Amino acid sequence: MIKYSGKYFDGVTSKQHLVQVAIVEDVKITLYFEDQELVIPFEEVNTIEHFGNQTTYFKIGKDFPYRTIEIDSAEVLQRTKKYSSVADKLHIDIAQGGIKNVILITAITFLFFGFLIVYGLPFLGEIIGGNIQKKKKKSIGEAYYKQFVASSKVDTFKTNSINKLIANYSLSAKYKINLTVVESEQKNAFALPGGYIVIFTGILEEMDKPEQLMGLVAHEVTHINHRHSMRALGRSISSYLLFSWVIGDAAGITSVLVENYNQFMALSYSRELEADADKTGAELMIKNKIDPKGMIELMNILKKEDKDGQQEFLQTHPLTENRISNLKKQLANQKEVPTPPPLAFFWQEFKK
Ligand SMILES: [Zn+2]
Description:
Elements: E1 4-9, E2 16-24, E3 28-33, E4 36-41, E5 45-51, E6 55-60, E7 67-72, H1 74-80, H2 86-97, H3 99-130, H4 134-150, H5 156-166, E8 178-182, E9 189-192, E10 196-200, H6 201-204, H7 210-225, H8 228-236, H9 238-246, H10 250-259, H11 261-265, H12 271-287, H13 293-305, H14 312-316, H15 321-330, H16 341-350
Parallel strand pairs: 8-10
Antiparallel strand pairs: 1-2, 1-7, 2-3, 3-4, 5-6, 6-7, 9-10
The structure holds zinc ion.
Zinc ion is lined by residues 219, 223, 269, 274, 277, 317.
């Protein structure tokens, strides 16, 4: 039997033994040294690693520190190549391909993580944000709402009358819609997670029909029903979310979100989320027998006002070219719906 020269490290002392090695694949490895004969059953070999063109390492045993046999022989390397793990193949490739492969592998690694951070992380954040439990969403929304209302002047009359009105419609199966009118010249409205909607008096003054108001409400309600704000927020603070999740701090996710009030207030929705809020919002109006064209009218009013691109509503709910034309297409076959008497009466009182 062929014997190869090698080195043996016993895993106990740092002493190296010069040995002769006989190999019977899948059966045993026999070491001959200092008048001893040491038989190692092949199943005790943990891994076989290769370096360069001729070095083979046999790691013996289950746990660290391993016993190691090192043999410098191209023949042994050939004979044991089939046992080498994927990681070892990489070692060989790097060793044989030199610096070119190192650069290539580094570049691929960076590209992979770059891609993950730019695309994967926000995507993951959106999913985490969207899937926060309903109860938690409610408490996050409530925290934002309280923080916002604390520094605002609420129009109690308008708040009460809109809430009374929308209680007659079926808008959300998941949440109780809690609407607040705030005195402000801002022409804007926004939805908070868990059912809260804030409307500024500035945008109400622009409206001349109750269908326009209901269009705004249906749009905001869809942002709530489809968890848009949590998804958008999750996207914008994805790295924090991932961090809380990785360290297993589920409670931390809620507090991270609550602490990001400012970030939340500066959010604007993506094109896709806006399109969804328009489309589903219009469907919600039809279901409630309200003329959905009110939503188009409201958009036209806001667009006309938006000469300098500073219109608040359009900044937080970006008005792309397509939004109005998509709605027109969707509602092309929609017949005129007269204003129902209760809605007309509400509007009369509301506008006083
Ligand atoms: Zn919107």
